[in-house]
Amino acid sequence: MLHPFKATRPTRDKAYLVATRSYISYEPFELEDKLENNPYTFLHVINPNALPEASYERRFEAVRERFDAFMDEGVFLQEELATYYLYRQKTPTHEFLGVIGLLDADSVAQGKTLPHEKTLERREKLFEKYLDTTGFQAEPVLIFGSVNEAYEQCLAEVQLDRPEYEFSSTDRYLHQLWPVPEQWVGVLQEFFEQAGTKYIADGHHRLASSVRVAEGRPENPLAQGVLCMFMSEKQLSIQAFERWMKLEDRVFDVSDLGTAYSVVPLDGPSAELGEHNFEMYWEGRWYGLIHKDKAADEVLATQLLLDSILKPLFEVHDERNDSRLRYVRQSEVDMSTAMGKRGYNLGFRLPPVSVKLLKEIAENRGSMPPKSTYIEPKLRSGLLLHVFK
């Protein structure tokens, strides 16, 4: 169930200044520029470079102190009535629309919200401590599922009114947000009460850590909710990551693949991988690889690549931490020259995971290898906060 909530959010005039991408997406010089020239950016609150010599606990306490200072200054306001929020993001290539509310923390344990990735316990525990100390969630977890006509009609009606927030960011993304009027809150509540299984698209560690906080604070009803944005599975954009590898002293020849794959020379990387399980770059040439027993639409390409090539030929047993591997968000650009200059001379392009396959993996309680998906939309931090203490 996704519930309405009393959000803490920026005042209308400061929303475009407060909202920020995740701090890990900024280069150091960009982060410095934002902090120096924008007094309202939420980066001031979550600044990971503040108090670098202090303990984690003290640094987390300082985050809450800086948040309280923003509240005292009037940068944020506290809603008096609980509602949902409609968020629309328009990029140069896609448009996304979803509803932000609070997900029941125990919905994961009950099997009502399903993950498709494994999480690292040490990261869960660290972020649990962060959340428990700061007392707020500032970036929604992205979930998706099927929708009905009543849901779509509700969203269409809400968008007829002027957005509370409407601004463009420097990456040329348009952001719009509407508090859902009271007459439509009940419609959405009814939809979420009857909606079936929900699936986690992005934010597995944030969700897992929030669940830990909920379990540790059973007496606090506000801590039982996780800030989430729900969207239709038809809206989800799933892209792939290329794998690039430094062979170092390894000897490799295309003929090494002949037992398991048909290898087809290509003029260059293709926009659509088609019948190929994946494409490979080696010694100035691109090749399409077609597995002799596994059709491209029947298997998870990242798992097949790991099991049939990276592990047996190059002894990659920890794909997440192998220093020879580099992951690059996939696009139509041929990255072979740029990656070659950095010493990465073997590359693989993979087809994006389908929504159907992602759901099947989640329903079977499976998990994907690291960097199997790049999912959009990427949501802003600081636009809506769930403050639970």
Structural class: alpha+beta
Helix content: 25-40%
**CATH architecture field of the largest domain:** Alpha-Beta Complex
The helix tally amounts to 11
The level-1 CATH class of the largest domain: Alpha Beta
Gap between N and C termini, in Å? 22 Å
Mean pLDDT rating: 93
Runs with pLDDT <50, length 5+?
Answer: none
Rg, Å, rounded? 23 Å
Would you tell me which CATH topology of the largest domain applies?
Answer: Conserved hypothetical protein from pyrococcus furiosus pfu- 392566-001, ParB domain
How many strands, what sense, and barrel or not for the largest sheet? Answer: 9 strands, mixed
Describe this entry's structure for a reader.
The protein has about 400 residues and is α+β, with helices and mostly antiparallel strands. The protein has two domains: about 1-240 and about 375-385, Conserved hypothetical protein from pyrococcus furiosus pfu- 392566-001, ParB domain, CATH 3.90.1530.10; about 240-350, no CATH class. Helices cover about 30% and strands about 25% of the residues. Strand 4 and strand 5 (about 95-105) form a beta hairpin. The radius of gyration is 23 Å and the shape is globular. The model has no long low-confidence stretch (mean pLDDT about 95).
